[in-house]
Each structure stands twice: as structure tokens, then as C-alpha cells.
Amino acid sequence: MIGMKIKSAIPRPALSVSGIILACYVLAAVAAPLLAPQNPYDPLQIFGWEASSPPGSMGSGGYRYLLGTDGLGRDIASGILYGLRISLVVSLSGTIIAAVIGLSAGVAAAYFGKWVDIIIMRLVDLQLSLPTMLVALIAIVTLGPGIDRIILALIIVQWAVFARIARGVALSEAGKSYMDAASLLRLPSYRVIFRHLLPNSIAPAITLMPVEIGHAIALEATLSFLGLGVPIDKPSLGSMVASGFQYLLTGQYWISFFPGLALFGLIACINFVGEDVRRRLDPRGSSL
Amino acid sequence: MKLEADRPPLLEVRNLSVRYLAKGGPMTIVRDVSFDLRRGEILGIIGESGAGKSTLGNAIIGLLDPNFEPPEGEIRLNGKAVVNGREREALRGRKIASVFQDHTASLDPLMTVGSQLAETILATGRKASRKQAQALAIELMGRVGIQDPERRFISYPHQLSGGQRQRVVIAMALAGSPEIIVADEPTSALDTTIQMQILRLLRRLVDEEMVSIVLVTHDMGVISEIADRVLVMKDGQVVEEDTTSSVLETPKNSYTRSLLAAVPRLRISDARQAKHHEEHERAPILLVEGVSKAFSTSGMRFLGRRSEKFALQNVSLRLARGAVAGIVGESGSGKTTIGRIVAGLETANAGSIVLDRAKYDVSLRGSKNGLLGRVQMIFQDPASSLNPRMTISEALVESVRFGLKARSENKVPGVEAMMDRIGLSKNLLNRYPHQLSGGQKQRVCIARALLAGPGIVIADEPTSALDVSVQSEIIALLRECVMEQNLSMLFISHDLAVVQDICDFVYIMKDGRVEDSGPSRSIFAQSDNPYTHSLIEARPRRFIQ
Amino acid sequence: MTNVILGRFLQAFLLLLVMSLIGFIGIHSAGNPVYNIVNVETASAEDIREATIALGLDQPLWVQYVRFLENVGTGNFGTSYIYHLPAFGLLLSKLPATFELAFLAMLPAAPIGTGLGLLAGRHPGSILDGLILRSSVFALSIPSFWLSMMLILLGAIFTGWFPSGGRGETLSFLGQNWSFLTLDGLRHLALPVLALAIPNIALIARLARSGTVEVERLDFTRFCRAKGLSPSRILFRHTLPNISIPIVTIVGLQFGGMLAFAVVVESIFAWPGIGKLLIDSIQLLDRPVVMATLTFVSAVFVLLNALVDITYSILDPRVRVSV
To answer: Using one digit for the tens of pLDDT, what is the confidence trace for B491-537?
Structure first.
């Protein structure tokens, strides 16, 4: 029985509820122009006199405002669908680019060692010793507003996490005998990195992806909420919640409530899916 | 003794079966096992990995993981059936205690060993004050042979040596004055000399303290040394049960016989010594001259305080062409370090290496001085010596493509011929390492080393991670490769018998120095070095010829 | 041990220096603050030039930075462009509000989170474990600004139990005004404290759970059971100390984080603390205040980090004795 490993006995469904909901979210975002009754970016489709209509009221456009309208008369349901696209595009591209950069930097630090390692890891340490919110604020204050800047800020915030994980894994892989065997064959660097080190260091970074995408969405929403994120004419979910804050105090809750709920649901689904992925890839962390 | 016969055996196990809840349905790990444990005896349970011996031990302690079904069958203690539940928990530590393999993991790293021991004394129901418990703890530490127990009482586990930690673990097992101790591989994580001390301690406890021991192990040597009776297990079943001497001398079951045959035996007397001595005189392919290496102690060196310890001190070795030289030593002796320096994987502070008449400065990195790539290694753990994301064929082809082939004297056979040579089916070529057994993986590693066409091969404990029966196969394969291909090999091991089995010449290392050396046939009989003798002393006597 | 502490503080100091540089450059490139203190429409070129000189903005960047460093050393961050008060004094006046908020949030969060984590980790895979784990994912998924707004919606607007913002009545103690000393102040604290505590409880619970699962899987807890210790003794005497290191870390860092960046919660609840001051100052390009806040926050954070590391070495004998 020594060293005997048997995976968790409890079977897991192939597709979880959160996975299905997440898929719906993505589909809805992709098909937003088809699903949404109103294009919230087109001023001609917005009727200013119908501002702050409660959910379910009939609009002049011949459709119901299922979730009401905001302070400018924009349909909240349509706004959520379009806002989802922004949230997803921003967070996905930010996280994926951060993962690629972080993974390369981490593996490079582990492989080359010496000053490459020192420079990269000092930078990582510096950044990880500060709260992400501080780093994001500094980045956004320095870079200025705009969707591309937000993505850049997300990359700056997130790359360090991936770099640290990748370096740790790559170092432990580099200590294994198969890497010694590779050195004994005097393989060229590119082969050691791309054939041996990288393929074996990638899994933990991938496990980290969903959680980090969740963080990215939350961070983008928070920055937008604080008015430091995406421009006001292209509202993301965060700025929609922010725009409803003043109405909340007078009881017009729907302007903030529904976009926030959509955001909450999205992040929760991603986190649950992430949890699932982690449990599948690392049976040790499961309910053994 | 008359009284003894009337009483029921201390522990009776009847038709015990244990099932594991695996993904594909329950798996039977222990199948219909029955045996008795008598008072004052050591019952050995031996088997290879997967035999179910540890599960059996855990079932007796009542500590099966939650994904095991409750065991079927009956366990009786002093004639009284042991039922699961609260009653069972009350037995733990008081009637049935245990000793685990990993002494480091068995102790709470954040609590002094004394407090842990005192806590155990109090928990196992002795009415004692804290002071009394402390005094008892110190007395117990003395009884299990810990020097200076008063001082050790306030030590944390990481401040003790492996042997001392295992003694503390044994003291804890004794704390509740149990009738039975279940010891699961109690010496497997220790060096051989320490191993023997712990075994003698266990024997003494049985003889003096009226405890009985269930000893679970994979090591026939351990069994032969202290067990009174043996249970041989295979695939969850008992295949043979008898007294230790009959099992060792007249095994009835074929599996037991194969287990015994696979145990390497140390030969102290052999007539062929002279011839091998001559072999060593032949032209050397490798000369290691005066290699020293300092380790700086780890931790933060802030105010320039820096203490130096030598990992290697003036080590010189010689390997004749076509011969096998062994390096034996316990952990920390530097045997692996010297191997890695010879392979060009590590640097040293001083010394040189002459390989194939070319001299290399070992203070330079192996990639700088040209040494790297001329030597191939076979590593201890086959599980980590193959890239998990490359198929066997990819790994072997890589070795051919990038190896020293062009410069080697012998023509290197193709990958398929090599698979044949090392006794593996060609069907395995497209498999990934995790689809192979440990022995198969180690064969692939041998093939990979040979395909690179190296000047010499270094085998670093190539059999330590394998089951005994597989060990002997790998040794046989290595020996054949040496013979047929006129290969020269450095063989690093902690096991004297294995080294003697395959090597022509042996170096014995201790604390970074070569302590003793000589032809393998004669050194163990003729050496007058006290350390060599202590190593021989630590061998199970029954496996010395 | 002394080496560890000294080394840790040297490292902290270097870190601060680097951060002040980054922060200084960051804020400098964010826009010309002159336009914030002069009226853009009516000011003449002369007015702007005078304002620039008055603010020291005509000097080269490195001179401005050195001057800034000198000032930091003496606690002088300049005068706020907006409030016309010393920036550091302004910051200090906001500190008690933030401190009491962060402290009152962590006070229940640490024990509740640890307790829930231990409870869940004791029996991984049980229904209770699943419940705690799932709730924690939900709690960590709620965007903090939305959580705060929903708390206002429920606790203030629909029920009217609590006020929706502000500090309420305060009482002077140790020369500072505190809300927690009055009933009205406590009512004002309730919602923002809850908004900060909920995600922290979830975070600590998850950490404590995974730590417990990890430790209970180790041989020594199994050995503790084998030698006959009671489950509660194992839990409190062995598991808890062994999981305390990551928990101390997260509590320390989260506390620092809240002290520094309860930005969102403070803005929503109109809580006059440091976070709100920072956001307002960033939006108004009030550079001295932003710099003072960032420097202070960084210092607090770096010091907390160092303290946490030192606590490590006290909690863990492997570090304590070997160095």
C-alpha cells in the first residue's frame, strides 16, 4: 500500500450547473445584438423621458423594459447584455495575456536563474506585496482611462501571480531527474524549455486561470464603479451599478440591482467552475 | 507457560476483508485474512507494494481512511470482540498503539517532543499531574534509548536526528502501556546502522516490557532480524504463515521462495578475490582526483556570518575500463554528490576528473569544461526521471539524436533493438511514462542512458525505489549490459549486498570522505576499518554468507 | 533571529523607496495639477506660471523627487491643493475613522472565519463542508460595491434599521473622534463593518479549511489519533497551531488592505476615511494628498508584511531556533 494512489471515490458530474450557466452567459454576451431589444450605444433608440421606469413597464420602442430603465432611459436588460461583452472581453484578454507573460517570465526566471531570476522575482515580490487594488489604481492613474488601458492595468496586476506560480513549478520540475537527464544530453536551451520545462509547468497556471478571470472581472467592475474604468458612453456592468447609486437612495433599486446581480452571478459561476477545474486537476485537494 | 496456553491469544483476526471505494467500484485490498498474535511475540507481515499489508495494519489499529468500507470479519482482543465506535477509540493508544514509517511526519513540528509525550501520557488515562507526566515522559525517553532525555525533552522534532525522532515515536507508542504495537515500516526511512538499533530496541521492548508487536514491512532483512513468526502477503491474501526460521529456511510457497531469492546477500568469503583485484589494475577510464566541495549553510547570511561544511573532502576514485566501481554510504555521505560532479551536473571547489584520458577542471560548470554529456546517469526514482509529457519513443529518440553517438566506440543499436535488448515490448514505445510500471520505467531509463553512447554510466541507487523482485531483475539487466557492451559504470548505493553483487571494486564513503576501499569480493571479509565493520554489523545476519 | 528582523526591515525600507519612486512618477504623469488650482478660463499665462513656480513644478523631475523624499523624512508632504491643509495632517485626521472600521471588521471576521474553516475542514466532503465551501465562494464572488449597496438597500432603505452613510455621533477619546463609543456611531458602523467583514470571513474560512484538510491528512494527526488523543485536543492543540501561520498572514495582510483600501466601502457609505480621501484626491489631482496617502499606505503595508514575517518566526520553531 505504500505510495498507492487512488483518485477520489466520489464521482463528479461531467457538466456542473455553474458550467451551464457560465456557457449561457458567454452565449448571451456573444449574441447580445440579437437578444437585446435596444442598442444602448445608439442615442436614437433611447427615450429620455422614460428614464427610471420600473421593471416590466412598456416602452415607446414597442417592447417591455423587463428590468426597467436607468437614469438616462436606457433599457437595463439590453445594457446588461452589452455590458457583459465588455466585462468578458476586458477580463479574458487581460488574464490571457497576463498568463502568457507571467508563464514565460516565471519559466525564464527558473531556467536562466542568476540575474534574470533576481530581476523578475524582485519585481514580482514588489508587486505582490501590495494590494491589487493599489497596483490597479496606480496603473490606471498613470495610464489614463480607456478600455485598452484597463486591459493593460489588468495585465500589470495579474502577470506577477502567474509568474510566481510558474517559477515555483518550473523550479520543482527542474529539480527532477528527467531534467538532469536532459542536461546530460546537452540539449539546446530551446528544446529544454519548450519540450521539457514548459509543458510540465503549464498545468498550475491553467488551474489558476478561472480564478484570475473572476478577479479581473471584479477588478474591472470596481474600477468602473469608481469612475476610473471604461468610458461612460460604453457602460460596463460596474459603471451601470455606479450610475444607479444615487437612485438607490430614493428606492429605485433596479438600476443598480440587476446589473450587480448579473455581475455577481457571472463571477460566482466562474469561481465555481474554477473550483471544479482545480479539483479535477489536483485530486489531492479533493474530498479525500 | 501453562497459564499462557489456557488463555486465548492476545489478538485474533478472523476472516478479515477490507474494501476500498474506488472509482470503478469497491476494490478488495485485504481478502479473508486470519491470524493470531500471541503474547510477547513479534509477528512480521511482509509483502510487496500493493499486498495490502499496511491496510491490514490500519484495520487493526482502527484507522482506515474514510474511503474504505468498514472491514468485514472479526478482530478479538483478549478473547473479546473489538467493535467499531467509541469503544474502539478507547483502545487506541491504551491497548493498541502504533509506530509509523515517517518519523518526521509523525510528530507535530510546532510542539516540543517532551510536551507531545507528556500529552500522550495524560491522554491515555494515567492519573498524573503535569509534573508527574513530565517525569514519566523523561523516564520513557530514557527507556527508548534517547541520550540526555532531560535536555531532549525541550527539543523540537526538527532538532533531533531521524533515529532519535523514531525513538520518540516509539516512546509515545509505549506511553499508554499498550499490549500491542502495530509498527508499519518502522525502519524504512532510516539509515542501515540506525535501522538495526531501532530493531534491537523493538526486540528489547518485547522481551522486557511485555508488549507484542505486529511488524509490517517489505524488507525480508527486518523480518529475519527480529520477527518470531511471519505472515507473507500477496494481493491482499496470506500465502504463507510460519515461524520466521522455517519461512527463511524451508519456504513452502513459491511466492515466498521468489521473495527470498530476490534478497541480495552479502558474501564475506569468496575465493575469486585475486582475479578481480587484477581487473582493477587495468587501465582506468575514469580517475577522480582530490575532489572537494564546500557547502555553505543555508539561511540568511546578513552580517557576514558564514560557516562552511564540507560535502566532499579530497575524494579520489578510479574506475577501470569495462568494470563497475561501487560507492557505498549512508545518507549524507556525499555519494550522490560525487556522482553528480563526475556527470558534470555539479561543480566542486577543487580537484579534477580524467575521463578517457581527457582532464576536466571540476571547478568549472560541466557545460564549460566539456564534461557534461560524456557521462549518462540512471536515477533513483524512475517516476521522476522520465518527462511525463513525452512518450517512451520520443524520449529514446531524443537520446539518440542528441547523445554522444558519433564519438562512441560501439555502434549504438536503434531504438527498437534497444527495447528488445532491455526486455521491453515495442508496443510500449507509444505509451507515456505513467502507463508503465516502476520496473519498466527504470528499464527505459537504462535504455535512454545506453542510447546516448556514453563514456561511462553512473547508476545512482537505481533499485531503491523498486520492489525486491524487480530490484534483482534490474541488477541482472545492468550486469548484462556491462558485460555485453564493455560498459564502465559507477554504481552508487546504500546497500552493501547489491554493491557486492554487481561491482568489481568498492569505495565506502562517510561524511564526504572515502573511508575504505577494496575489491568487492574481499573488502567485507578482510577490511579492518571499523566503519566498514559497523556497516556489516548492521546487515541482517541471516543474509550474510 | 536578530538577523531575520534586521534583514526584514532593511528589505522593507528598500521596498518603500522603490514604491515612493513609482508612486511619484505615476502621479506626476497623470496630469498637470496647476489647472486644478487656477481657473482655466480666466487665468492668464502669468497666473499659471506663478502657480507652477509656487508648486515647485518648474524644477526638473529628480529635484522634485529629492525634495519630496526630504519632505517625507520630516513628515511634510506639502499642502493639499484643494483643502489648503497640510496633506499629512489631513491624512492623519482621517486615520481613526478607517482604523475603527477595519478593526471592527476584522475583530469578528478572524475568529468566525477560522471557526468555520476548522468546522468544514474536519470532515471534508461532508454536507457541512460543502455548505461552508459553497457559501464562501458566493461571498467572495459578490463585488464589494454591490454588496455595500445591497446592504444599504436592505438595512437602510427597506427596513430603515440603520443609517445609509456617515459616521454619526462621535465621542472624543485619546484626542480623536470615535464612532464606536456612541450608540448612534455603532449604528452607523454596522453596515460598512458588515460589508468589509463578509468577504474576509469567507477568505479566512477557506484558508483555514484548506489548512485543516492539509494538516489532518499529515501523518502526525493520524499518529495523534493512533496514540489515543481526543479529537478536540488534536484540533485545538495540534491542528490549530499548525494552520495559524497562513491565517496570521492573511489576517495581517487583509487588515492592512482594509486600512489602506476600504476605498469602495468608504465611498459608498460616505465614511470619511483614508480610502475615500484617496479616491477623491485622485479624481481632483490633489497630488500632495495622493502622495501622502500612497506613501502612508505603502509604509503601513510594508511594515505589516514585515511584522507578519516576524510573527512567523515566533510561531514556527523551525524558523525560530534554526536562525
So the answer is: 999 888 888 888 889 999 988 889 898 888 788 887 888 988 888 88
Looking at the fold, whether B335 and B400 belong to one and the same domain comes out as no
Q: Name the residue type at position C183.
A: L
Tell me if C143 and A248 make a contact (CB, 8 A cut-off).
no
Residues of C in contact with B175 (CB under 8 A): 227
pLDDT digits (tens, 9 = 90+) for B241-299: 989 888 888 888 889 988 888 888 887 765 444 445 555 567 888 888 889 988 754 44
Distance of alpha carbon A271 from alpha carbon A158, whole angstroms? 16
Q: Distance between CA C34 and CA B335 in Å, rounded?
A: 71
Please report whether residue B543 resides in a domain: no
A263 and C15 within 8 Å at the Cβ level: the answer is: no
> B228 and B106, same structural domain?
yes
In the block, cell 563526475 appears at B342
User: Is B79 in the same domain as B125?
Assistant: yes
Q: Is residue B501 part of a domain?
A: yes
Please report which helix (H) or strand (E) contains residue B140, including its range. helix B130-143
Together in a domain, B37 and B125: yes
CA Rg value for chain C? 24
How far is the alpha carbon of B296 from chain C, nearest alpha carbon, in Å?
Answer: 14
The number of helices, as runs of H, and strands, as runs of E, in chain C is 15, 2
How far does C4 lie from chain A, in Å, by closest CA?
A: 18
Q: What is the CATH number of the domain that holds B512?
A: 3.40.50.300
pTM: 0.78
Alpha carbon of B52: minimum distance to chain C alpha carbons (Å): 19
| Closest residue, chain A, to B30 (C-alpha) | A1
User: Do residue B348 and residue B393 come from a single domain?
Assistant: no
Give the DSSP H or E segment for B117. Answer: helix B113-123
Least confident of B389-403, C25-39, C99-113, C175-189: C25-39
Q: Please, what are the domains in chain C?
A: 2-73 (no CATH), 88-322 (1.10.3720.10)
At B419 the pLDDT is 87
Range of the domain at B418: 375-454
Q: What is the pLDDT, as a whole number, of residue C16?
A: 75
Residues B430 and B390 in one domain: yes
Which distant-in-sequence residues (6+ apart) come within 8 Å of C20 by Cβ? C68, C69, C72, C295, C298
Same domain, B85 and B182: yes
For chain B, how many structural domains are there in total? 3
- Tell me which amino acid residue B179 is: E
> Residue B512: inside a domain, yes or no?
yes
Task: Judge if B324 and B234 occupy the same domain.
Answer: no
Go through B140-156 and write b for each residue having 16 or more CB atoms within 10 A of its CB, e for each that does not: bbebbbbeebeebbebb
Cβ–Cβ gap B398/A7 under 8 Å: no
Q: Which of residues 41-100 of C touch A (CB under 8 A)?
A: none
* Within a domain: B482: no
Q: Give the span between the Cα atoms of A232 and C293, in whole angstroms.
A: 27
